[in-house]
Amino acid sequence: LLKCQGPFVILSCGTMWSDFIGRGKDSWGRWDPEGREEILRFIEENRIEGVLFISGDRHGARGFEIPRPSGFTFYEFEPASLGGRWGPGVKPRDNQLFGFDRQCAFGEFSVDATIADPEVTFRLVRDNGEILYKLSLRRSQLTPQSK
Hints:
The chain is mainly beta. The protein contains 2 helices and 8 strands; from the N terminus they run βααβββββββ. A hairpin with a 5-residue loop joins strand 3 and strand 4.
C-alpha cells in the first residue's frame, strides 16, 4: 500500500468489509475484526491516498460509507449479483449508499487522472445497460487527514 503510485487504490475482498448486513455474519467484522481494523488503521495512520473498497456478496448489490472514530470515512462497493442469486430483501440501513436485490448488475470504476484532484466514478450497471447508481469521489475525499 505504501508503494502504490496510482491516483486510487482499490482493495478487493470476496467478502464484505463492513458489518452492516446480517449482523456482519459474512464480513471481516465477524471472521477477522482485528485484521480489518489493522488494515483500516494502517491506511489512516499512513495517510494513504485514494483508497476504495470493493467486495462481493452474491445476494445483492450494496454500497456503504464506513465511518471511523478518526472522523474519516471509507467507501465500500458491493456490486454483486450478475449471476442473479437472490437473497434477503434490501432495507434502508445506516451508512448505506445504495441497495438492490433481484437485479442482475455489475460495477465499474472510471478514473479521471487528468485533473489536479483526480476523480473516480463508480457505476452500478444493470444487465440491460441501465445505470442503477452512480457516485463520483475526489482523491482528496478519500485521503485521511493529518492528526
